[in-house]
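R.M. (postdoc): so does anyone remember the format we settled on? I'll just put the structure tokens first.
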């Protein structure tokens, strides 16, 4: 018998994503985003995001079904992001998923969106939309997960992605993407700043300016072995820029971004490799919007490679929020035989990483 057909629905923030998978095979993945509306505000406006989900959901679902040549009645199970995320966005997606489950009589699984950022690396995707396909095989059962986005920077020991995730560490203040967005604002890049700071950093000299690494003091090194802190670094960058501005000197944006990016990525990669060595895991899986960062992708491969550890990072288009990540973790949960979520579940805006299913 073939594996179940799972519909995945993502609506935690500004992306409405719908995807369909069968086992590890991604049949279709469609995303609508309201990000373009936020450039003029310099940040996401939750009410606009909720309304955009409401408007995009049916067209996105219809497009996904049509492109995959699948009818709603062919779907075996529905997975929807139950958290963490914005309450309005989650409520729209979860209500839509509940209505679909009710209308079709199919089981509904409210899954953790952040776990989806890791699960997506195990999919096999054909060449869709002319973009590169992916298939590095299934994920190993046990691995170190590094989830980095605008809202999260987590290190986790995954023993079984459907039910056994131990959080080893997290950021004590800003997430990696958030720190990049703030430095972008400081240097007057468009919103969100992350990709712009990454681009400027590539043109700069990483060694020209050395910014401090968070939690590097000896008292913090053991207590916060797997934690991150980026707010002191962000302040150091702000002071550096302010001093130059006060002196009327030019701002070397490329070198500042390169030095800043190096400090963030040095911490992320050193701690991820350390966690793999400490736990005896031979694989690190990286996910989340910040895993699009070019220096992160390069440095983690270098450092893990030197330690004999393999690295799995999804292609760029699967790093930012998408339906495929929800369908991917949904398919795993269904395959593991876990019980569906209660039909009246409420989204959890602060769903912890260790909780895979609501
Ligand atoms: O996972 P995501 O799409 O949304 C959540 O935060 O859940 O991540 C978006 C974050 C933003 O902060 C964005 O600036 C950052 O990822 N980002 C990047 C890059 N691409 C996206 N940060 C640094 N370098 C990039 N290339
Ligand atoms: Zn995300």
């Amino acid at each position: 018998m073939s594996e179940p057909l799972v519909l995945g629905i993502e609506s935690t923030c500004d992306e409405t994503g719908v995807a369909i998978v069968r086992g590890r095979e991604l049949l279709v993945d469609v995303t609508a985003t309201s990000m373009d509306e936020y450039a003029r505000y310099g940040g996401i406006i939750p009410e606009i995001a909720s309304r955009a989900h409401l408007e995009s959901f049916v067209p996105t679902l219809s497009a996904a079904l049509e492109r995959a040549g699948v009818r709603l009645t062919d779907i075996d199970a529905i997975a929807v992001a139950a958290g963490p995320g914005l309450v309005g966005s989650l409520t729209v997606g979860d209500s839509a998923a509940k209505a679909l489950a009710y209308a079709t009589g199919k089981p509904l699984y409210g899954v953790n969106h952040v776990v989806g950022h890791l699960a997506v690396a195990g999919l096999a995707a054909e060449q869709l939309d002319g973009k590169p396909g992916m298939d590095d095989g299934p994920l190993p059962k046990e691995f170190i997960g590094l989830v980095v986005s605008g809202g999260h920077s987590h290190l986790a020991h995954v023993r079984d992605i459907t039910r056994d995730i131990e959080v080893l560490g997290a950021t004590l203040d800003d997430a990696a993407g958030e720190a990049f967005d703030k430095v972008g604002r400081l240097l007057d890049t468009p919103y969100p700043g992350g990709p712009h700071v990454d681009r400027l950093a590539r043109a700069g000299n990483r060694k020209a300016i050395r910014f401090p690494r968070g939690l590097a003091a000896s008292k913090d090194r053991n207590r916060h072995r797997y934690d991150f802190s980026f707010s002191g670094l962000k302040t150091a960058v702000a002071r550096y820029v302010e001093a130059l501005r006060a002196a009327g000197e030019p701002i070397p944006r490329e070198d500042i971004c390169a030095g800043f990016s190096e400090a963030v990525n040095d911490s992320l990669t050193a701690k991820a490799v350390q966690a793999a060595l400490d736990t005896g895991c031979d694989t690190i899986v990286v996910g989340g919007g910040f895993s699009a960062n070019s220096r992160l992708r390069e440095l983690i491969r270098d450092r893990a490679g030197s330690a004999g550890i393999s690295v799995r990072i999804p292609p760029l288009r699967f790093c930012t929020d998408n339906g495929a990540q929800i369908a991917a973790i949904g398919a795993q949960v269904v395959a593991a035989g876990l019980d569906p979520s209660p039909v009246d579940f409420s989204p959890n805006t602060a769903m912890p990483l260790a909780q895979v299913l609501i």
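R.M.: ...and that's the designed sequence above, right after the tokens. Also worth knowing: The radius of gyration is 20 Å. Residues 113, 117, 149, 288-289, 321 surround zinc ion (ligand 2) (CB under 6 Å).
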